[in-house]
Amino acid sequence: MKVFVKRGEALQEFEVPRHPSQTVLDVVTYIQRALDPTLAYRFACRVGMCGSCAMTVNGAPRWTCRTHVDRVLKDETLEIGPLRNLPVIRDLVTDMRGFFDKWERAGGHFEGARTRHDDFARVSPASREREAADAGIECIGCGVCYAACDVVSWNPDYLGPAALNRAWTLMSDVRDTQHAQRLRAVAGDAGCHACHTHMSCTERCPKHISPTAGIAGLKRAVAKAAMKGDL
Length: 231
Ligand code: SF4
Ligand code: SF4
Ligand code: FES
Hints:
Blueprint: E1 2-7, E2 10-15, H1 24-35, E3 54-57, E4 60-63, H2 69-72, E5 77-81, E6 88-90, E7 93-94, H3 97-105, H4 128-137, H5 144-148, H6 150-154, H7 160-171, H8 179-186, H9 200-204, H10 211-227
Parallel strand pairs: 1-5
Antiparallel strand pairs: 1-2, 3-4, 3-5, 6-7
Helix pairs in contact: 3-7, 4-7, 7-8, 7-10
This protein binds iron/sulfur cluster (SF4) (2 copies) and FE2/S2 (inorganic) cluster.
One iron/sulfur cluster (SF4) binds at residues 148-149, 151, 161, 195-201, 211-212, 215.
């Protein structure tokens, strides 16, 4: 197959042999190991756990270690580039700092009330809150949803689907003690109300998470808090 790799402003062409069950990450690794050792790209686990291998493949953001070439090849050709909406460090490697800074801005870390000396909290798997938290918890921080979101392109300050999904997951966690602060953090202009419900994040998330649903939950929670005068 022909593979075009975006390197800065240029597209570099490579010829790569096909194999059964070949993934896009296998293709990039072949290029780097056999054809051009200067190609920069990022991966760690190769099994869909670490979230570090996401790239733009034939126009769409994807996790490359779990994307089979057969599924995405068009006219025996692949075009591979870095993720959209993030600064490029080199070739296929993007700078994820802004992405994770937004998780922090959205209150994306857990703060509980118990210490290591207390018993485990028990939250029923059947409770509404637990179901809402479970729906978003498997996020691997790959940035695919963030690259797919047009609002992030228009407004680089927008917290984006992954940070807001994280915020909603924690808002649904009954053990967390920071609900009021987190709600304030996501209520501003760059927060949940900036989402236009385009659904691109939900369509593209490789873990089948719906950041759109989480953002809708945040909008409802912000509205409720505003009505009660709690914001
Ligand atoms: S639903 Fe919201 S966060 Fe998701 S892609 Fe659309 S605008 Fe972005
Ligand atoms: S919500 Fe999905 S697409 Fe977005 S960072 Fe998490 S796993 Fe990746
Ligand atoms: S290499 Fe870890 S998710 Fe792809």
